[in-house]
Amino acid sequence: MENNWKEEALEASRKLNLVTEEVINAVLNDVADTAEARTAELLEANQKDLDKMERSNPLYDRLQLTEQRIKDIAADMRKVATLESPLGRTLEQRTLPNELHLTKRTVPFGVIGIIYEARPNVSFDVFSLCLKSGNVCVLKGGTDAYNSNLAIVTLIKSVLAKHNLDTNTVHLMPAGREATAELMDAVGYVDLIIPRGGAGLIKFVRENAKVPVIETGAGVVHAYFHSDADLTKGTAIIANAKTRRVSVCNALDTLIIDAKRLSDLPAICKPLAEKNVVIEADTKAYTFLAGNYPSELLEKATENTFGHEFMAYRMGLKTVDDIDRALRHIAINSSKHSECIITENAQAAARFQKEVDAACVYVNAPTSFTDGAQFGMGAEIGISTQKLHARGPMALPELTTYKWLINGDGQTRK
Fold first, then answer.
1. Residue 1 has what pLDDT?
2. 20 to 30 Å CA-CA from 97: which of 203, 295, 336, 403?
3. Using 50, 70 and 90 to split pLDDT, how confident is the model at 409?
4. Strands (DSSP E) along 230-376, which ranges?
């Protein structure tokens, strides 16, 4: 494989430092307009990928582009264009006794590599956030989405050329594992890699990349229906968290219910039955649902039920005796992405938010809100489940680092 892309990405990164915010915003708006104008072209490319995938595949929904989704993508890009630039912010400054003046200022990482699965919308999201934060992006999408990604990157490059910007500001790696390995080994050229996808992909990148990695994506998500939960609120929250989009990382995987509220299970699960959600229930919960939930959708939990990210119309159901056991279950099985408690007990809510170790911890709201756009960040580049540098939805500020600027007047050190 030719290695020219590495030098080209570095050169594009240096040039991008000189591009004004006004030009960057104009490019983002132009890409958004062009995406809408060329919707038919994008959908045609996307259909080539869809034709190769079974509809039953949980990734099918992630892979699919629609006219409305392209409109939403364009809206997110325009939103990013309106956001304040994260660059050039003074984080700290002071003058030392020797009159050296120090300034700590935000700057781009430089070149960011993204390894992701069958999600062509990520190509737009990553480009918009990287450009706005002054970063070159190197995209390594899944083979399943290659036609879609190629059409998207070709569109973006045409807009960059129109504005006289280096088209290597965005680069799409070839399909296949060889390109993935080359990206992960690009020390000195790529400053950061962000994997977006399932636990398997993230684990592979973390264990094999030589370039620094920020882990994102894998979500084993719980909702705890506390003994003092409101039934109406809880039913709506659980249904939304589970069924809004089952293939995304903020979707609910396990409902934990207090034993005192088992009699409410039929009502809680009724909206799930309407969506054909298969429930894998522990013994106690199974007893209360048997005869009150479609038998073809009710199964007994196995040793693989809990701690599993389903990405499908399937959910685990765990019974606990109190909040202590709920917290313990989450601590053992969580991927530290998003967790939720449903309760009218302020003390229980406060304890849950304090003790649960996750990037996003909810009280009386569904985990489906874990999203950069929903948080007012514009599009997101991923949801970090680690603690170094960034945590939770990553948008513009999280795509910057900083450097120290030191101004002197001939001082020398003894």
1. 44
2. 403
3. very high
4. 254-258, 278-281, 298-300, 314-320, 338-342, 360-363
Token representation of residue 312: 């499908």
Under 8 Å between Cβ of 160 and 171:
no
Q: Which one, of 333, 277, 284, lies nearest residue 305 by Cα? A: 333
140: Cα within 13 Å, side-chain hemisphere: 22
**Token pair belonging to 267:** 């009502």
SS3 annotation, 59-103 = CHHHHCCCHHHHHHHHHHHHHHHHCCCCCCCEEEEEECCCCCEEE
The DSSP call for residue 173 is: P
CA distance 190 to 300: 47
Q: Find how far residue 368's CA is from the centre of its chain.
A: 12
β-strands 338-342, 382-384: how paired?
unpaired
DSSP 8-class letter at 365? S
> How does pLDDT run across 363-391, given as a tens digit for each residue?
999 999 998 878 887 667 888 888 888 88
Instruction: Note the residue count of the chain.
Output: 414
Buried residues in 376-387 as b, exposed as e (16+ CB within 10 A): ebbbbbbbbbee
Closest CA to 193 of 138, 153, 149: 138
What does DSSP say about strands 338-342 and 400-407: parallel, antiparallel, or unpaired?
A: unpaired
Amino acid type, 352? F
Q: Residue 222 forms beta bridges with which residues?
A: 254, 339
Q: Rounded distance, CA 139 to CA 149, Å?
A: 9
Distance CA 301, CA 281 (A): 5
pTM beyond 0.85, yes or no: no
Helices (H), 290-409: 323-333, 346-355
- Reference 318, options 243, 257, 393; nearest CA is 257
How do strand 111-116 and strand 278-281 relate by DSSP bridges?
unpaired
Q: What is the tens place of the pLDDT at every residue in 76-88? A: 899 899 999 999 9
Helix (H) or strand (E) holding 33: helix 21-37
